[in-house]
Amino acid sequence: MKSNRLGTAALFLMTSLSAQAHDFWLEPTHYHTKTPSSIALQFKVGHKEDTSHWSLAWNKIVALRTYSSDGVTDMGASVVPRTALLPGMAKTTELAPGSHVIGFESYHATSVLDAKKFNQYAKDEGLAEILAYRESRGQNDIAGEELYSRKAKTIVQVGDTFTDNVLKPIGHTLEIVPLNHPYKLDDNTLVVQVLFKGKPLSNALIDALSLADHNAQAQALTTDKDGKATFKLDTKGPMMLNTVWGVPLKNSSAADFETYFSSLTFEYLP
């Protein structure tokens, strides 16, 4: 988003903070298939039942790839941008038996919020570095301007061959990495680690919520010193985990802060 997206992005955040309008995720048509097949993918934004298709466009995509145990495949050629008639989608090549991660990264966009809304937004999202920076510089009464980008992953399973590539980071700036396989949990316990620039991120707020049951209670945890959080899953069906992190941008004319939004989706099958 450049100039034509600035107003839309700011308005969206300003009017929808209570609904967590930042939620962005990848939604495959199937999280699990029995036989090798290609998987179509949609790009969603919103919260609970208030969701819509993200305005997928070529100039917003940094990378869209499939990560499998035998390598990485670029999905750029499969992208169908959103139009008035189409929701926007992409499609994998035929996936072999095993576990696969689809990863997406967007370019930066800009958002501006007045002081009160920005402070509340930063508090709600647990943006500790940003809050401390504004406090130390006496900036709590001025508007906050940020560059933000989206990072999203989804895990799909083909057949009953579970591969551990889903337990490895794919290199996103902000990334949620499961430490036990979401499709073969011994119980309902899922342990994840949040990485920022490849290193464990402590004190990050991470949410887990059902994409199938909008009445299910969401879970919100803060990562420990090793960037880890442990969730007890209790709702069958597609799940989303998401986290946000931001840092001050020093000596930059583009914005005051840089913020990253990251999500992970999969299907919980107890």
TrEMBL record:
Top-rank lineage group of the source organism: Bacteria
Signal peptide as annotated in the record: 1-21
InterPro entries reported for this sequence: DUF4198 (IPR019613)
Pfam families noted in UniProt: DUF4198 (PF10670)
Keywords: Signal
Protein name in the entry: DUF4198 domain-containing protein
Organism: Alteromonas gracilis
Lineage: Bacteria, Pseudomonadati, Pseudomonadota, Gammaproteobacteria, Alteromonadales
